[in-house]
Amino acid sequence: EVQLVESxxxxxxxxxxxxxxxxxxxxxxxxxxxxxxxxxPGKGLEWVSAITWNGVITYYAESMKGRFTIxxxxxxNTLYLQMNSLKPDDxxxxxxRVSGTDYWxxxxxxxxxx
Length: 114
What we know:
The chain is an all-beta fold. It has strands spanning 3-7, 10-12, 18-25, 34-39, 45-51, 58-60, 68-73, 78-83, 92-98, 108-112. The strands form two sheets. Strands 2-10-9-4-5-6 form a six-stranded mixed β-sheet, with no helix packed on it. A four-stranded antiparallel β-sheet has the order 1-3-8-7, with no helix packed on it. The radius of gyration is 13 Å and the shape is globular.
């Protein structure tokens, strides 16, 4: 059974940082490109970032460049998202997703507020 379990969300002040994790199991994690996707309250899904199977190439949505860093540890079957300089507009539920599949995690809430 495929499982993707996100963690690390929470309440943070503007300008703060959070590190999200996504623990994967039930599939060959190191064979897949991985993504972070988010959904803000009342809005649609927004792609955030992606990373190739070996972690060599990363991709970011324009508004996240320079603030967010995606990484993976294939030995631990874990995906990460380091988020710095957070803004209220970053408030959303963050999901990890396996590229080319319908595999999603349950999401972790990130709230940026003073």
